[in-house]
Amino acid sequence: MNDLMTSHRNIPVTGVDSHAHVFGQALALTAARRYTPAYDATLAAWLGHLDAHGLSHGVLVQPSFLGTDNSYMLAAIARAPHRLKGVAVVEEGASAEQLDALAGQGIVGIRLNLIGKPMPDLGAPHWKPLLRKVAQMGWHVELHRQIEDIPALCRALLAQGCKVVIDHFGRPRAGLGVQHETFAQLLALGASERVWVKVSALYRLGGTATENLAFAEAAVPQLFEHFGERQLVWGSDWPHTQHEEQIDYASQVELLERIAPQQRWRDSLMIEGPKALFGF
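Now predict its structure.
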């Protein structure tokens, strides 16, 4: 443990994986989960992938099936605190003291995984204390939801002063292409300068492999045009839950080089964007 904690104190940011998960199959899982892991996704395995690809830092995201018990992720961050940060899942009524404690353990944002859930009214009074505290702390709110609902959710969060991170390209339907109105509405959010998009998990876009790739190749230049070079980040989505048999880490790095062929784009996605968002 001490080697992990001391060997990366002052390393430069050579690349950031901005979206990955760690978990163990023996952990207590939420009753309402959509997925049950049958394997362990360990910190050591993920750090091995980072090292193999020359990536200096990473961001862990609390998986939905662990609910609001962030302890496993926090323990992982504590093993390499100068290298890692995290995004937690919290109760709507989480107190300021609870959030401050998480901040002291490397947490920089909260995630709202709304896939398969009713559309929340984030402007409702019971959300305001949490969202205002998140904004005051300089944290972001990470949204995981289909693209149709992203603009309304973003507007509600921006009205509370929050920074927003949109997961996995906004979960568009790749087969509809980048000209579809839902993607145009997502692009318009770049004008706020307080919204980031994760270029990640292409395999979650609902199309064939060919459709997903074609979408990403067309989308990335438009994302840079509308969001700029400091409001986009890349994530591996390791360990690629529900797609473990078809996807591996190396393939995601190779895919990034294909959909972001310019070196300055890759530097933005893996260095400049994460530094601006996460404070590395």
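The chain has one domain: 2-278.
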